[in-house]
Structures are given as structure tokens and as C-alpha cells.
Design brief:
about 100 residues, mainly alpha
């Protein structure tokens, strides 16, 4: 898994990456990826830490159930790439946004 992490996150997370628990976790995740279909693709598991610098973060949303269809998950919760059919949870979020603020998201 060749992940990319934006520099401001890398500076903050690097100390954790060196700890035994994280190395154990990394080995486990690599093994799982080698045996099973897992989403998102390994290189995208830290996509959120690559696309938004630390000092630009305003809100953090953590999803409970990751998208599990091919091509859906790309490392950001409640998001799919352009051209990918919206999963039901994302459709519901857009409906709630429209109900709450009266506009399409």
C-alpha cells in the first residue's frame, strides 16, 4: 500500500506510525488486503489526510459503515467519485440537506 499523506498531516501522524501498535496494525491490514477484496483500494485509505491540509480542517465526519461496492469507496466518508452511482446513505444526506437549507447540495 503506497499511501499519500499531505505534509502537515504527516508531521502530526509520523510519531504514531513509528509505534509498535501501528506497525502491528499496518501488517494486519496489508495481510487482509492480500487475502480479501477490501475497499477503498489500499493507496486511498488515508485519502482524507492527503486532500485537505491540517490547518484547513473545519469539521470531521466519520462514517460508520464504509461503502462496500466496487468503485464506491475512495477514502472519504459519504462521498463517491464522479460518475459513480450514489449509495442510499448519500442520497439520504442530500435529501436532508435539501430539507434543512432548501437547496441541492
Amino acid at each position: 500500500m503506497n499511501v499519500q499523506i499531505e505534509e502537515s498531516w504527516k508531521i502530526r501522524l509520523e510519531p504514531e506510525f513509528e509505534k509498535d501498535y501501528f506497525r502491528t496494525l499496518t501488517n494486519f491490514v496489508r495481510e487482509e488486503y492480500s487475502q480479501y477484496p477490501i475497499y477503498p483500494p489500499g493507496k486511498l485509505i488515508f485519502n482524507a489526510f492527503n486532500l485537505c491540509p491540517f490547518d484547513k480542517v473545519k469539521v470531521v465526519i466519520i462514517g460508520q459503515d464504509p461503502y462496500h461496492g466496487p468503485g464506491q469507496a475512495h477514502g472519504l466518508c459519504f462521498s463517491v467519485n464522479d460518475g459513480v452511482r450514489f449509495p442510499p446513505s448519500l442520497i439520504n444526506i442530500f435529501k436532508e440537506i435539501k430539507d434543512d437549507i432548501g437547496t441541492d447540495a
